[in-house]
Amino acid sequence: MKITRAQVERVAQLARLALSEVELDALTSDMDAILGYVDKLNELDTDHIVPTAHAVPLENAFRDDTARPSLGTDKALQNAPAASDGCFLVPKVIE
Amino acid sequence: MQLTDLTIHQLHDLLREGKTSAQEVTRAFLDRIAATDERVNAFITVCQQESLQQAAAADARLKAGDGAPLTGIPLALKDIFITEGLRTTCASQILNNFVPPYNGTAVAKLKEQGAVILGKLNMDEFAMGSSNENSAFGPVRNPWNGDCVPGGSSGGSAACVAARQAVATLGTDTGGSIRQPAAHCGVVGLKPTYGLVSRYGVIAYASSLDQVGPITRDVEDCAILLGAVAGYDPADSTSVDQPVPDYRATLKDGVKGLKVGLPKEYFIEGLDPAVKQAVEKAVDTLRGLGAEPVEVSLPHTDYAVACYYLIATAEASSNLARYDGVRYGQRVDQDRGLIDMYMQSRAAGFGPEVKRRIMLGTYALSSGYYDAYYLKAQKVRTLIRQDFLDAFNQVDVILTPVAPTPAFRIGEKTADPLQMYLSDIFTIPVNLAGTCGMSLPCGFSQEGLPIGLQLIGRPFGEETLLRTAYAFEQASDWHRQQAPL
Fold it and tell me: One of B21, B78, B131, B345 is an active-site residue; which one?
């Protein structure tokens, strides 16, 4: 086994996904098969290879630190599931 | 010949000469959508009234002699493009009611030219899939055979063009999502070099691989639409600051003396005989036009799918963390606190394939596994990219099949995610290398399903790609075949 059911449950917690028992079972076997397949990368010796994060070599893109127009509160809030007083409304975080 | 059968350049000529109007053309396409989309399911949203208003504005502009190449041309967009005031779902339940407050750069460029937007197109949810079966709005059906998939993830964008419901469309390609559906639907599709087209206002899947590109009826339209959306954009920090060539100007330069690389790793067992035969015939056609086929090697091809499914899922797990039920999208709140609200909203909003990829990516990035999976995949990516750079020291373009088989049946691969992933084996390496690739029609299977030819170019080698494709297209008539719909 590349991955256990307990590990899958832990990953679901990290990914913030409330998964059903059926989903957890299916994902355990799917992820086990996929991780078994990707193991083939270990056939390659990559000790001295530099990793590629982006295919096109780019320098950091900076802009001048000046104020410019932005979306604005109304537009930013227009899709919020809940909003109040110009703020996003979320369930209570601290008791 | 009906208006809905015409290309961008043909319609532009008619519009400029006053032989038709943008409103007449738009109505023809709206009628065609109404008559066919029950069978194709390419559209998530049709913009009946807005498109006619845009057409009226385009007619005024044409009358004033101020027409651009896309003025009054009816196009449609994959529902991954953010459109101001127009619902954008990414084919996901979680964005079911999302109405964006701004336009992305590619869309804004089309609108500046006065293009008419007919609507938003079906796709695999968050662009994750190869068959368009992973949509919250139901599968898209292949216009050539309704029992078959159109390919994915830009399945709606390819099927829409094949069904003649729009002149051309925009899609996105992360591992083949423009080229593979274009091949399965018998149309032309191009994935530009990473950095050529801005990703600003395109819902992110895997940010180091995603690119925007055109799906069209012929190569000249592909050149026009690519030219319209390409170019540096300060709003995308990975956009490359260099001038955009006039892709149409070099289309007819021919292929005499052009070295065409045939990677031996792509002509393997498991390649459908009809696909192999069609691609070999295409090589003969190009040889007849003066091109010089050369065998090349891309030795790390076999590792590309494994590499992709670690990098793409890792980036996806990070990108999709934003869907938390706070700023936009669906919220499920059972009054059990903030974390529970996140977990329930995401569980209810995402479909099975999206969950699978988020899980895989979260695992690949998690403490203790990062080096073994994500970092390892990034190193293999270097090897795959180097394969292409080495091959391009010997040849000008690389020629391969787009997919190992023609379109498969709906339901055929849904039970086995790994088999589905392997259907992208010939397109994924191009995204990992960050270079450009295109798909164009090169034949049909015995069952009458289209077969696609892939041309791969050097980074920013779109001109060579397009002129090779144009030469092939002029010597064949595959692109003139119409889906029996």
Answer: B78
Whether A16 and B340 lie within 8 Å, measured CB to CB: no
Instruction: Quick: pLDDT tens for B326-335.
Output: 999 999 999 9
pLDDT tens figures, B398-413: 999 999 999 999 999 9
**A22 touching B (Cβ < 8 Å):** no
Q: Which domains does chain B have, with CATH numbers?
A: 3-254 (3.90.1300.10), 302-378 (no CATH)
What pLDDT is stored for residue B270 in this prediction? 81
Confidence category of residue A95, pLDDT binned at 50, 70, 90: low
Contact B362 A14 (CB under 8 A): yes
pLDDT digits 0-9 by tens, B461-475 = 999 999 999 999 999
Is the CB of A17 less than 8 angstroms away from the CB of B355?
A: yes
Residue B59 CA to residue B466 CA, distance in Å, equals 30
Which of A14, A71, A78 shows the shortest C-beta gap to B366? Answer: A14
User: What was the ipTM of the complex prediction?
Assistant: 0.95
CATH number (1.10.20, 2.60.40, 1.10.3470, 3.30.980) of A5-43 reads: 1.10.20
Lowest-confidence pick of A54-58, B204-208, B235-239, B268-272:
A54-58
Please state the three-class secondary structure of chain B as a single string. CCHHHCCHHHHHHHHHCCCCCHHHHHHHHHHHHHHHHHHHCCEEEECHHHHHHHHHHHHHHHHCCCCCCCCCCEEEEECCECECCECCCCCCHHHCCCCCCCCCHHHHHHHHCCCEEEEEECCCHHHCCCCCCCCCCCCCCECCECCECCCCCCHHHHHHHHCCCCCEEEEEECCCCCHHHHHHHCCEEEECCCCCECCCCECCCCCCCCEEEEEECCHHHHHHHHHHHECCCCCCCCCCCCCCCCCCCCHHHCCCCCEEEEEHHHCCCCCCHHHHHHHHHHHHHHHHCCCEEEEECCCCHHHHHHHHHHHHHHHHHHHHHHCCCCCCCCCCCCCCCHHHHHHHHHHHHCCHHHHHHHHHHHHHHCCCCCHHHHHHHHHHHHHHHHHHHHHCCCCCEEEEECCCCCCCECCCCCCCHHHHHHCCCCCHHHHHHCCEEEEEEEEECCCCCEEEEEEEECCCCHHHHHHHHHHHHHCCCHHHCCCCC
Which residue in chain B has the smallest CA separation from A82?
A: B326
Q: Does A53 touch chain B (CB under 8 A)?
A: yes
Flag the least confident range among A10-19, B193-202, B406-415: B406-415
- In sequence order, what are the residues at sequence separation of 6 or more whose Cβ sits closer than 8 angstroms to the Cβ of residue A81? B325, B326, B328, B329, B330, B331
B78 is catalytic: yes
Does the active-site annotation cover B177? Answer: yes
Average pLDDT of the residues in B301-325: 97
